[in-house]
Amino acid sequence: MIDMTSKAREVRDLGYCVLEAVYDEDECQEIRILIDRLCAQRGGPSADAPRLVFHPLLRLCPEMGPFFGKAEVIEALAAVLQDDVRLAHSGGAVSNEQTKPYISGWHHHYHWEVPPGGLNRENPERVLGNVYTDGLSPEIGPLIVLPRGLNDSTNPRLDDRGTDWPGQVAVSAPPGSVVIFDTALWHSAKRGTRPGLRHLWGGHYQGWHNPKPHPEDNESDSPGLADYKRDLPALRRLIDGP
Ligand SMILES: [Fe+2]
Fold it and tell me: How many domains does the chain divide into?
């Protein structure tokens, strides 16, 4: 049983939290099959294209609906956002061991103007919920974060986006874990040492009472999602509202 209050506090105090192994191995295997099917349609990942991204993932693959509709993940997101949860963006990224050493350099997803006096928030307005189907480890390729308090500066720690930053933390987690993080959290990702695919997928989430547009918003709804929404109220509320 996940302590949602303490997870929400971790996001406020550190910028992120980990929900360990909320997808079991059978679910992870189903997810890999779905994402690998998308990869096969694009003919990769390969030596020429070691990283493929899929946006909006849920529109491209409505069969992912039940995994986006996972109740305990949505409950944690609601505790963090202090609101009913809206899926504002869905995406996936698959890479192999031939990708560049930094799968992605240091960046954040805040993309909104910071007031002259600095951030003054009670909760994050928008978070990512990234699912690491294969886990996070040096072998799979870690997520690296720069822990932050809720209203800390969004300025970069260093100008170089492709190097280690002082204070960084390599997040480790078992397969099927979700990392929920503030869009203001600086993060990067390194490739793993083990041959094979690293399956990352997930969404950006905002509260339904916060309609503020964001440059990474995308549309996940599609006719193919109708049956899943009908059968899964938690998924329907993510897409259509409470
Ligand atoms: Fe990112």
Answer: 1
User: How far, in Å, from the CA of 106 to the mean position of ligand 1?
Assistant: 8
Q: Is residue 118 part of a domain?
A: no
CATH for 11: 2.60.120.620
**Per-residue pLDDT tens over the stretch 206-229:** 999 999 999 999 999 999 999 999
3-state helix/strand/coil string of the chain: CCCHHHHHHHHHHHCEEEECCCCCHHHHHHHHHHHHHHHHHHCCCCCCCCEEEECCHHHHCHHHHHHHCCHHHHHHHHHHHCCCEEEEEEEEEEECCCCCCEEEEEECCCCCCCCCCCCCCCCCCEEEEEEECCCECCCCCCEEECCCCCCCCCCCCCCCCCCCCCCCEEECECCCEEEEEECCCCEEEECCCCCCCEEEEEEEEEECCCCCCCCCCCCCCCHHHHHHHHHCHHHHHHHHCC
Q: How far is the CA of 171 from the centre of ligand 1 (A)?
A: 14
Q: What is the pTM of this model?
A: 0.97
- Give the residue numbers spanning the domain of 98: 4-113+123-240
| Residue 227 alpha carbon to ligand 1 centre in Å | 31
Q: Model confidence at 191, in pLDDT bands (50, 70, 90)?
A: very high
Q: How far is the CA of 53 from the centre of ligand 1 (A)?
A: 12
